[in-house]
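Can anyone check this?
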Amino acid sequence: MSAEEYLARRQAQFNQGDFIGCLADLDQLFRDPQITPEQVRPIWNEFMLGPKQLLLRATRQASKSCDRTTIDATSQTIERLFGSFDLTRPPQTVARLLKPHDKLSFHALFEAQLHLVDVFLSEFDQSEIKARLGYAIDKLAEAWGFIDYDAQKSFGLPYADAESTGQLSRASADHDYPPAFWNQLRPKWQTILSKFGLPHSVGWSHPAFLAVAQWIAWLLSDEDELMPRCEHSATTQIALMSEAENGLLEGVLGRLTVERIPGGRRFVYPDPLRSGGFLCDTIFAESIHRAVQVALGKELAVALCDFRWSLVIEDSLNHPIYTSLTGRSGDVAIAAALRAAARDETLDGHVVVTAQFADTSSVNPPLKPVQGIVAKLLGLRETLHGAAVAKHVDELIVSRKQPEATDPATRASLGADVQTGRIHLTPADDFNAAYEQLALFPRLTAHVKAALHARSGELLGKLCNPY
């Protein structure tokens, strides 16, 4: 089967819910020695890394069939596709898609999924299930930079108890306060997860643990989306640094979305379906922690909810791409999306911010310069110019101390987009200033719409009422 034939069939199979057949075709395609990385890259990214998550969808379809023949056949296809679960030797076509330094992390990311698949397609007792889930959590922590996670660097926040008067407190065990999707789990899985031992006794607040538990809840459901659905979401563009094939850093443009989930305990964790296409190091993971402390540290009004975030990196053809992220230049963008989700606000999709916090001791820390402004502007240009879906970014927010924002000689190195004014560099002193710039035009638009709606109602009643 050629890549063109597969592409012609895949959408029909997906629309019909034939995920097992789609996975079998993908297995056949990847074993074709004539296939090139350029042909298979968008297929691999879309179905194995993107939000469609073909591997997990096929697993769910097989496990719900309760047919041992179907389950075994699906398991065998997955074993062939991933080299009998030995990801030290991924299929040759897949290996050619990855940069050499990504391979180990690639193994970790997909080993997490494969251990979870094994749980659902094999007949294990509870002790083996717990062991497999432990492997999955460890591998996700490795791939997403949460290796050094401990109770002192919690990605969750202290929460307000139901009987409290708003004072923040932390219980002795987070197991007593599960996340919003707890009720989506069956009693068997509630028992396994509520008694799950983790290093440092961090309990539910461990982001990799929450991601695996959310995976399980989704696999048990019939819903296309993760449940429960969000109350409000906020999306912003984010300029980051990624490792290029030559080992150097390059700028990429990502789309960060934070969803506020009702009924939780202020946990902040990755969306396991939409965040499967990137790796991050401990520096980037620490950036998420810093953003949480700044954006939500004083937001007592949102104590009974969780925050689920996703990050999608796409090329100019809107295909999700597999990449490694590093650095703290996402501090402000992540914090802004968290604050907007907590406050029911919207952020300007035409504005990108790249800056880091000088400290996180206050809710309005000053901003520090970041590296790679030239590379990020180049990444913006390559992503935006020729995009399959029209994208428009006309403003880049940076720290006021960023040399490119104030020094004419340095500014001259930023290229034609800045020199011609197509992209405007806006300096900001602190987090509040950056956030206000991101939220300004959506607020104005909302106020204008509200005023027009109210005025049209008045005129409708006054001019169109015959009585």
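Reply from J.R.: I decoded it. The two ends are 71 Å apart (CA to CA).
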